[in-house]
Every structure is written in C-alpha cells, then in structure tokens.
Design brief:
single chain, alpha/beta, 164 residues, 22% strand, four-stranded parallel sheet
C-alpha cells in the first residue's frame, strides 16, 4: 500500500468559450497524474461512455479526447485542487482545498454542472456551490472502483447530459 501524499492538481481544466456543460471529477488518479490528463486509467469507462453518448469513436490520444470534449461543448475539471491522498483512493482523501471554478464560468457558457461520482459531488456542494449557486447533478462514477456499473448502465444515468 502506498503512503498518503499531499498533492496538487497537476494539469489545467479543459474548456473553451463554447463549453456549456461542466463535468467534474474529484481528483486525478495515479494513472491520470502520470498521463497528465483526465481519466487516464485504462479501466475507467469515461472515454467509452463519452463516445457512446455522442455516437463517436472511442478517443485514444489526448488530442482526440480533447477534441471530443470541446466539439460537444463540454468542459472537464475536478472539484479538488489539492489534497492528501493514498494512491487513487477516494476514501483516503483529506485536507481538501477546492478548485476555483471561476476561470471556467468567467470564460465559457457553462451553466450546468455534473459530477462524476459521490466524492466530486460532495466536494462541489460543500466548497464550490456556495460561490456558484449552480447546483450539480451527481452521476455514478466511471471509475473501475464502481464495478457494479457497466458502460450501458452508466449510459442510462449519464444520458441526462444530452438534454440541453
């Protein structure tokens, strides 16, 4: 078991001026920190789910993933700017400093927030919602730790992001 580490978020949010829907994770996994990009663990279903939602090929490269997100007017970021964490374990997260989402809200059309999993939602509602007054919808996590949800089952919950 790896030791707890105090870590800062290592990469910037993904959005542009046309983004209207923000998807928030909690904090990047070990694999995402190594890849320096969102949802880097090969067993995370996020990219397969996005491809299914938007009827596209599953993106492989960071460029393909970024293009899929921006082409569909999404934004990606995480609720936590820094924390103490053991490996990738959400249950180990403590000493949370929330992300400042104003850079996204001030420079895009984002008016809807969806949280990828319970920790993201909990952190958003506790620390960020009081500043944005934009409520967030909690969606089931695409993490491999949420093995009870297949891509098809995730899709049934996540298709709400298509309702614009």
């Amino acid at each position: 078991m790896s030791a707890a580490q105090k870590l800062a978020h290592p990469f910037p949010p993904l959005f542009d001026s046309m983004s209207d829907t923000l998807i928030l994770g909690s904090f990047p996994s070990v694999k995402s920190r190594e890849a320096m990009f969102f949802y880097g663990h090969p067993q995370n279903r996020f990219w397969k789910l996005m491809a299914k939602l938007f009827d596209e090929e599953v993106p492989v490269t960071i460029e393909e993933k970024s293009s899929l997100i921006l082409r569909n007017h999404l934004a990606l970021w995480d609720s936590i700017r820094s924390c103490t964490i053991t490996g990738s374990s959400d249950s180990s997260v403590k000493d949370v400093v929330p992300n400042d989402l104003s850079v996204i809200f001030d420079n895009s059309r984002v008016s809807r927030v969806f949280c990828n999993g319970a920790l993201s939602h909990k952190m958003y509602m506790k620390y960020i919602f009081p500043h944005t007054n934009i409520s967030a919808v909690k969606l089931p996590s695409t993490s491999p730790a949420n093995a009870a949800f297949s891509v098809d089952r995730l899709y049934e919950h996540w298709k709400i992001i298509l309702d614009r």
